[in-house]
Design a protein that fits this description.
Helix content of chain B: 55-70%
Distance between the termini of chain B: 20 Å
Strand content of chain B: 5-15%
Oligomer: heterodimer
Structural class of chain B: mainly alpha
Strand order of the largest sheet of chain A: 1-2
Largest sheet of chain B: 3 strands, antiparallel
Shape of chain B: elongated
Largest sheet of chain A: 2 strands, antiparallel
Order of helices and strands of chain B: HHHHEHEEHH
Radius of gyration of chain A: 23 Å
Chain lengths: 240, 161
Amino acid sequence: MKKLITLSIILLAVLAGAYYLSSYLAPRAELNALGEFYLRNSYFGEHSAGSPEVVTAILWDYRGLDTYFETAVLFMAIISAVSIFRNIPSVSFHPRGFTNITKTGVKIVGLITFVAAATTAFHGHITPGGGFQGGSMLAVVPLLVIVGFSKKALEKAGLNKERALVIRTIGLLTIALAAFYPLLAGGRFMQNLSIYPKELYGMLVSGSLSLFNMAEFLAVGAGFTIIFLLLSNPEGGSEA
Amino acid sequence: MRFLPVTLLAFILYIIITGSATPYDIITGAITAVVAGLLFGRYLVKNPQKALNPARWVAMVAYFIKYITVIELKAHLDVIKRIISGETNPGIIKVPITVKDEYAKFLVANSITNTPGTVTVYMDDEYAYVNWIDVKTRDPDEARREILEEFEKHAKRIFEG
């Protein structure tokens, strides 16, 4: 009975809180005026963020929530890694590793994760998501292989630290080139539209945004893969 | 050839996850699908003819529909009854498994686990070890009839032969 009362109080509080908050969560209709607002206000305006750097102002003040959740994605990925690896000593002492149920599951879930990661990165300029989020999801595939099979299985399949490093470097180089190219074309550093086309053969690519997303996808996915490979190295470190 | 079934599956998955099919989705989906096929094909598919057989896919969809409606409903009702009445007799039993194919075994093991009242704890080449909410029998063959005979029948139709 006592439990039931506590439970109903919690339920009522949650419902009341949700009702109260819902009026503040309505989608804004004047979204297009927002860009102008940022440019006018970030340093001089009435609602100054105290920063002449508009991007930083948006990132950590006006749209701090976005950055917050991007940090949360990274945090979540690392937490997931920690929780997956929590039983690793007992696993490595098991003579036969995981059962075939786990191994077959890893293969199927790996394929689905790969496809979901790709669509998250490719649509970063249209829907929520982007290169970083997609890359984090991509890195889950090698992580699953390391835990379900072994580090050696991943390396035998052709994905070792050196190759991951090459993929990561290609991603980072693409980002650097895409950022510097507008300077050569007579624009500003990291300038987007009018240097890069908004549409390509009628498909919306949002200038350099989709290019940045794809490059970031490779860089983050391969970067995390390196970390996972390093962390799972049983021979690493000294005897002491 | 082994990458073809995986490529097709990846493309269909991509379009479903994306939820739209504009030219941009189709081009990026095709790129993703080809890469996925090349990366995963040799691990996921041993026999491309078998994987591309539409009759097997139809059998899988039919089994899925039957599983989430009839089989799940029966098991849920049984467990709901046990939750209310508290009549449980749990235990882990050894059940022989007759399917040989990797995916058939995977399907049987996951069908057992997804059904309320039974969980596959461990599985080797010949036996599945199942945690059962109400151990009606300790005889392996009888337990097999009770727990996984129906799953195996469908798994054989989809993945074996």
